[in-house]
Design brief:
Layout (H helix, E strand, L loop, with lengths): L7 E2 L7 E4 L8 E2 L6 E2 L9 E3 L8 E4 L2 E6 L8 E2 L4 E2 L24 E6 L5 E2 L3 E6 L5 H14 L9 E5 L12 H14 L4 E8 L7 H6 L9 E5 H4 L2 H19 L5 E4 L4 E6 L10 H14 L3 E4 L10 H4 L5 H20 L10 H5 L5 H8 L8 E5 L9 E5 L5 H10 L4 E6 L12 E5 L2 H6 L6 E2 L1 H4 L5 H16 L5 H4 L17
Helix pairs in contact: 1-5, 2-11, 6-14
Length: 509
């Protein structure tokens, strides 16, 4: 293969566009599939080039799938992007479950070193959590966590830290309905999370989201590893901070008794995220993560795919793998809900690609979704769950969440994810306590530029130096090592204390 033929990457024989591997100048002669084309425009790396004439109104194909229609005639060698491509409604067929196949399990299953809890679940970290019921108690929670980390934590080496879980809601909302149920379900998922050895709940006292109903729904913890208080009952902020510090001081020696024990990979639940995506995301990092997910599922583990607006137009790739028509139906129900939801607020599903996505080469939500679904690998879709709902099925599960990464990952962690895997092409610095967050760079230039934030370089796939299967195998090994205590880049930098962001639905009153 000569250098000119390597400048463009054609992903499917049916594609009428190819992806630039580097910044290309107008007048440059390139030879995708040995067919000489002279570039008519400057084409940034990751962006698309027409490799055949495309009539106005004709479909634009990438990944062998329709990503839009030409808004005007496009000649070979032209830059193909938002200036000459329009969104089109997905016309993909939905043959629910026709490609479902049971997974052949691996024996023996892979293992990692985790913290086995009394209920049999396994944590990848051993934190104490300080959780606010309402924004009014957020500052007190942070002061409690800071006081313990500064004064007492050094004497308890098996405790990874104290995490303040704070948010901007909990009052000024209805005491019933979807909004408060989402918040309570999310807080309940964090309070019960296996990465928390113990938790302290802190309220103000007069908020809509009262502590008592939340406490009543929590799973039992080992004696001494749960406490709650309200600022008003304690007599004020200083008194509440003092009481909270004493409660955590009592938990520390109990939490410190936990130690890492070998556990099956079936106890690993991984939240799949992509953010700051670019034109390479669906070519390198997302397929590599998908290959790792396939290995995880074969070893008995669970992966949670989310971001419902970002599978729009690619949902047929999931429904065809659904374990049952009912599972496929649940996914389609959620997509219809999102169509109505965006319409109600004066938007549409194609509003999703961000300015950064477009700068990186993504033109429509169909293109973005086709690349995003690659994170899910190739195994069957076993279940579809609501936002922050506990995930109990093994294998690939879909959770309905917004596309906004912090909101989506918050729902996944509330559902039980004890590890987050996050692909990025533009560069993300996302951390996620109490679950470690691993970031996969779609290209080596990003990996080098943000080397202190990236955990894995997928650029070798683009360069032909690394197969997707090998990248998946290596990343699966990194997942197990991180679950066993190896610190992620975000953990090394102390990131992840501010990313808790529950999905807010409903009126603020």
């Amino acid at each position: 293969m000569n250098a000119e033929s390597m400048l463009l990457l054609r992903l499917s024989e049916t594609d009428n566009v190819a992806v630039a591997r580097a910044d290309l100048a107008p007048g440059h002669a390139v030879m995708p599939d040995s067919l000489p084309i002279t570039l008519r425009d400057a084409v940034p790396a990751g962006h698309k080039v027409a490799i055949a004439a495309i009539d106005a109104g004709a479909a634009v194909f990438k990944y062998g799938q329709v990503i839009g229609v030409a808004s005007r005639p496009i000649a070979p060698g032209e830059h193909v992007h938002v200036h000459n491509v329009d969104m089109v409604a997905s016309a993909a067929g939905h043959d629910a479950g026709s490609a479902f196949a049971p997974v052949e399990p691996m024996h023996p299953a892979a293992t990692f070193l985790g913290f086995v809890r009394a209920d049999g679940r396994v944590g990848t970290r051993n934190y104490l959590g300080v959780i606010s019921s309402v924004n009014c108690s957020a500052t007190v929670c942070r002061h409690i966590a800071r006081a313990i980390e500064e004064r007492a934590l050094r004497d308890f080496p098996n405790v990874d830290g104290v995490v303040a879980i704070t948010h901007g809601s909990g009052c000024g909302m209805s005491g019933s309905g979807e909004g408060i149920e989402l918040l309570r379900r999310t807080l309940r998922g964090y309070a019960d999370h296996p990465n928390f050895a113990g938790v302290l709940l802190v309220g103000l006292g007069c908020e809509v989201n009262q502590l008592a109903p939340l406490v009543e729904t929590l799973n039992a913890r080992e004696p001494g590893l749960f406490a709650s208080l309200t600022i008003q009952e304690e007599g004020g902020t200083r008194e509440a901070i003092d009481a909270g510090v004493e409660a955590l001081r009592a938990m520390l020696p109990i939490a410190n008794r936990a130690s890492r024990t070998e556990a099956s990979a079936s106890h690993l639940t991984v939240g799949l995220q992509c953010g700051g995506s670019d034109g390479y995301s669906g070519i390198t990092a997302n397929p590599a993560l998908g290959a790792a997910v396939d290995l995880l599922v074969r070893h008995g583990g669970t992966a949670i795919l989310s971001e419902t607006p970002e599978i729009y137009g690619a949902e047929h790739l999931l429904t065809v793998r659904a374990a049952s028509p009912a599972v496929a139906g649940k996914l389609m129900d959620r997509l219809r809900w999102w169509e109505d939801y965006t319409r109600l607020h004066g938007g549409d599903m194609n509003n999703n690609p961000s300015p950064g996505n477009k700068a990186g080469g993504i033109t429509t939500i169909l293109e973005k979704s086709l690349g995003a679904v690659a994170k899910a690998g190739s195994t069957g879709l076993m279940e579809v769950v609501e936002y922050a709902e506990p995930v109990t099925a093994h294998g690939l599960v879909f959770m309905d969440t917004p596309g906004y990464d912090p909101v989506s990952a918050t729902g996944q962690v509330a559902g039980g994810a004890n590890l987050i895997c996050f692909t990025t092409g533009r560069g993300s610095t996302y951390g996620c306590k109490p679950a470690p967050s691993l970031k996969l760079a779609t290209n080596s230039a990003l990996f080098r530029r943000m080397s202190m934030d990236m955990d894995f370089d997928c650029g070798g796939i683009l360069d032909g130096e690394l197969s997707i299967a090998e990248a998946g195998r290596r990343f699966f090994e990194l997942m197990l090592a991180t679950a066993s205590g190896r610190r992620s880049r975000s953990e090394e930098h102390g990131m992840g204390d501010n990313e808790f962001l529950p999905w807010q639905i409903g009126a603020v009153m």
